[in-house]
Amino acid sequence: MLSTTEPKYNSAKLWQVGFFTLNNTSTNLHLFILGFVSYYATGIAGLAVMLISTILMATRLFDGLIDPTIGYIIDKTESKFGKFRPLIILGNLISAGTIIIVYSVTHLLPESFQLVFFVAMLIINKIGYSLQTSVTKAAQSALTNNPKQRPLYAIFDGIYNVGIFTGGQIFVSSYLIAKHGEFNLALFTELNSFGLILSGVFAILAVIGISAKDRKEFYGLAEETTETKLRDYWPVIKGNRPLQMLSLSASMDKLAISLLRQPVVVVMLFGILLGDYALSGTMGLITIIPTLLITFFGVAIARKTGLKKAYVTSVWIGLLSLISLVAFFLIIGNSTAISLTNIGFTTILFIVLYASAVGFASLPSTLVVPMIADVSDYETAKSGRYVPGMMGTIFSFIDQLVSSLAPTIVGAVVAMIGFTSAFPEVGDPLTQPLFMATLALAFGLPALGLVISIVAMKFYKLDAKKMAEIQNDIAKVKANTNTKNDDIIAQ
Predict the structure, then answer these.
(1) Which residues contact 110 (CB under 8 A, 6 or more apart)?
(2) Which of 2-6, 196-200, 394-398 has the lowest mean pLDDT?
(3) CB 199, CB 93: distance < 8 Å
């Protein structure tokens, strides 16, 4: 029988949540920088479009394949510096180092060796990236289990992501492109210098944020936690339906937003369809406030009715917005009517729909991180096992498996309409095939991903009521352990 009393939660200070969330921002900076590697590889190193798209998909698949191993390392790590902090620093150093090498060395090598070197560096990069990013998911369970606090991660992450993806796009489209004229070596050097230094600072702040909670007393059932061996992992995965459904749903959300944010798709939408690539950065600036308001709205729902409710609501609104954008472009005919120099009804409607699509489609990817902690707590209450590393990395494996399709999908679609040796560039003429390909990549295929996401969440049962029961169970075990220890000391 489950207890109905309110459990004593492991709560964190607001600054601890805010600082630790920067770990995800740190890895997102690396992700943003590597988002432009297609232009480096094809435009400077001279590798083929479809080949690069396939390589990028393969390295993301590799990232997913090694994630379970990374999870096992996290779960088994216990040092005087904790479980999570050493992996944040190590992962950041490996990832940053390989990014520098990729952009600095590949084009200088003999043509016959470039591809092998490029692939090898991306593989090593993914090892470092996985080490750091897996901690973001795994450490949530130790940081706090307070249902009023876990959703706060989404607010901080939403604000930080605006800075990275919106601010970064403005930096690239309005400053770097204007300064350098094209995606050349000088542009990549400047982008990497700013991005990698900032990422390192964020990693250090994340270490400070988790330091007080990176102790055994905050790991699962503490001393009563069941030991988990490697052979136990498959039964855990097989028996954890919430993990399976959340992984499927979130991976489709990630695929949707990954397609929308692919640099090539941004070029196609803003640089060709709308005829103003700088507008991509300006649109990001305009939608900052709506995006933050959407995040606050989602977190308010999560704190009141649970993370699942907020997640599903945001997916539905994102889906409807994407469908509306497809209809919008099919109806208006003249896409050049969208302009900030001559603002009319068409421009305003586009801004509203685009802000809604980006804001609500992105929110699930933020909400899912504390939801993984819910799944980890579910497993702890169910079996006594504390395996947040495995939970986070199994989720990442499925996420990477699906979202790795984004660059390949983009490459395949543009190749089908004739772009086999180079990606569409700013200023290319807008043909009917290019128009339809842009709508499909930016809005149509992301909408299909969100449909699958909604279906998967029908089978995810960890709502607010169920999580309260789970935290009660965990609190009771810990309380009984403390009582036994007190009795032993008294004797």
Answers:
(1) none
(2) 2-6
(3) no
Q: Which of 372, 361, 393, 370 is nearest to 259 (CA)?
A: 361
Q: Say whether 10 sits in a helix, a strand or coil.
A: coil
The pTM for the full model equals 0.73
Q: Roughly what angle, to the nearest 10 degrees, separates helices 49-76 and 388-403?
A: 170
Q: E strand or H helix at 104, and its extent?
A: helix 85-105
Identify which of 341, 353, 354, 315 has the alpha carbon closest to the alpha carbon of residue 448.
Answer: 315
Q: Rounded CA gap, 352 and 354, in Å?
A: 6
Collect all residues with Cβ–Cβ distance below 8 Å to 239 and sequence separation of at least 6.
382, 383
d(CA 328, CA 322): 10
Return the residue matching tokens 């842009």: 438
CB 369 within 8 A of CB 157: yes
pLDDT at 60 over 70: no
Long-range contacts of 412-420 (CB under 8 A, 24+ apart): 412/50, 412/53, 413/437, 413/440, 413/441, 414/49, 414/264, 414/268, 415/49, 415/50, 419/49, 420/48, 420/49, 420/50
432 with 307: CB under 8 angstroms? no
pLDDT at 81 > cutoff 50: yes
* Residue 88, pLDDT above cutoff 90: yes
Residue whose C-alpha is closest to residue 104's, from 124, 89, 121, 91: 121
Q: Chain-wide mean pLDDT for the chain? A: 84
| Mean pLDDT across 330-344 | 80
CA distances from 323 to 283, 326, 361, 388 (A): 19, 5, 12, 36
Transcribe 266-293 into DSSP letters: HIIIIIIISS-THHHHHHHHHTHHHHHH
Lowest pLDDT segment from 127-141, 237-251, 328-342 = 328-342
What residues contact residue 425 under an 8 Å CB cut-off, 6+ apart?
Answer: 267, 271
Please provide the DSSP assignment of 198-252 as one string: HHHHHHHHHHHHHGGG-SGGGSTTGGGPBP--GGGHHHHHHH-HHHHHHHHHHHH
Closest by CA to 40, choosing from 170, 184, 172, 178, is 184
Write out pLDDT tens, residues 196-212: 999 999 999 999 999 99
